[in-house]
Amino acid sequence: MAARAEVSQATAARALGGYGYVGAASRRAVLDAAQELGYRPNNVARALVSGSTRTIGLVVGDIENPFFAAAARGLADVVEEEGYTLLLANSDEDLERERRAIDVLRTQLVDGLVVAPVSGNDGDHLRVLESDNRPLVLMDRAIRGLQVDAVMVDNAGGARTAIEHLLKFGHDRIGVVSDADEISSTAERLRGYRKALRDAGIEPDPGLVSVGPSTRAGGYDAARVLLERPDRPRALFTLNNFMTAGAVRAIRDFGLRIPDDVALVAFDELEWTTLVDPPITVVAQPVAELGRAVGARLLARLRGDDSTPKRTRLRTELIVRSSCGPGG
Amino acid sequence: MAARAEVSQATAARALGGYGYVGAASRRAVLDAAQELGYRPNNVARALVSGSTRTIGLVVGDIENPFFAAAARGLADVVEEEGYTLLLANSDEDLERERRAIDVLRTQLVDGLVVAPVSGNDGDHLRVLESDNRPLVLMDRAIRGLQVDAVMVDNAGGARTAIEHLLKFGHDRIGVVSDADEISSTAERLRGYRKALRDAGIEPDPGLVSVGPSTRAGGYDAARVLLERPDRPRALFTLNNFMTAGAVRAIRDFGLRIPDDVALVAFDELEWTTLVDPPITVVAQPVAELGRAVGARLLARLRGDDSTPKRTRLRTELIVRSSCGPGG
DNA sequence: GTGAAAGCGCTAACAC
DNA sequence: GTGTTAGCGCTTTCAC
């Protein structure tokens, strides 16, 4: 090791690692020598003995989704500040792939794990992590019966305000373009949707909820099913960003006009929703903050916080534009 | 270790690691015991001795940028198939942060590194990597004088076809909304732009190239500068996706109409470019394929390929829509 | 304040 | 085929 150039190994390690007692003189000597020899500490060796890899594992449905990308960015910003690096894995919204991803990450001995779980019901593979004694925080999605930190968004509330907005325009038959309600955030949004209807004295019609995969194509197809109905709903509520794009495309392809033929409110704000004509009324989520809050929670745990698990809800905001009718 | 439950340590390691000779009987025994005890191999220890961490480092300007996100996805898909995990870092398009990110990744002993370098000129921090003897592949952007694998897009060609398209509509004064030409891909696009003009007998006017940071706001401001000119150009060419969004916003805010008041061609295809009115003519890049090609190159190196560095160019495609005038 | 030595959990020779 | 043994490059007692 570089240290030998000057003093002993332990001393060098202490100087480099910045722990224990080192004389000012030896410290200088070591640091200089390290500089000269271009010494890089070997984090793998360090991790083996210290038990910490300074990495955080992140498992999301698809990093290509702007929602996850922005959250990942927020998370990275926060944890990198403390010297952690993000290990990334895509689950592709598939439970089996999620399991494998978590397994690989565990094997890499990440110091902490962030997961946006595919399923709100099936959490056994996450329950196992408890024995690892490494912090886990759930991002955007919860798992029934799993008592761990989770930072989410007020999905039910966001959906409710969206529906109430549509209600104001006299829509009582509102179609929903949804992905699988196994995803906990989706389930919550659907719950908010039904609640808002019932509160208005309307019994939700299950036939108006059209389900597809969380992709553009999924949104297109799910919207198509709704638009093809003889009693086509005059209002649509889309539950996530990719599907919104697909739904807008479908509406166009049917030669329908927003908002005259069909009103639209979308969950999740994206750049382009302001660029299209008409600009779309959306339920905006604080995405970057979601990532940052998750990071903060994780860092707290990493620092030894062992309070009982916290579930945090971030507020959403209805941004009224022009996709529902005159004046909104 | 779990193994003791049955046989010796070395044998267990062999069975678990799948290397060396192991009798069928002992293999079974070991595997069963491992199963029972919920044994997880410790990749850190394994890495320390084997010299391989099964991780790939990725440094991009901003994972939130759909371009990088899609490329990252393609890369992840390819390398995960071979059991590698992506270690992610953002450089924020800042050279100093890029240096630090690379340093951290080296320290984590990634088996290979993928970088979309901020600067096409300053590559000393990457040159150092040669001594690491770990493969490095450049993604989307090259560095002058650095002989390493690189997978890029035909930026000059793409820009040329874009400009030729605009030329066909009679535009001879084409404004460019650009980010820093230190970014090699940007420099190439600008080169293609100038070449196309000169080939048409037009001397490029440097005043028509407006530069800003690679963000929506940067695009907005850069476009504004152009649109405020008394001799406002009647055509705009935007060099990347975020800036395109900003430019479109600026055009709208100026009360200008596409394509009547200003024609537009954008580099990089995004979902929303087909959703706005009019849909925008773009130079599409094979982004996912870019990531996959980078992954393939890296895996080849990891497998021992030591041929001379390859520079690959992926083809772009002009997708004509309606942002330049009647019929395109 | 500094050095010697043990050991983190594995792999890789090398004997048997 | 299987066991023994020696490290990988660090951190960490524990003497001095």
TrEMBL record, chains A, B:
InterPro entries found in the cross-reference section: HTH_LacI (IPR000843), LacI/GalR-like_sensor (IPR046335), Lambda_DNA-bd_dom_sf (IPR010982), Peripla_BP_I (IPR028082)
Molecular functions per Gene Ontology: DNA binding
Keyword check for Nucleus: no
PANTHER family according to UniProt: LACI-RELATED TRANSCRIPTIONAL REPRESSOR, TRANSCRIPTIONAL REGULATORY PROTEIN
Residue span, HTH lacI-type domain: 1-50
Domain of life: Bacteria
Name of the protein in question: LacI family DNA-binding transcriptional regulator
CDD domains per UniProt: HTH_LacI (cd01392)
Pfam families recorded: LacI, Peripla_BP_3
The keyword Transcription regulation is annotated on this UniProt entry: yes
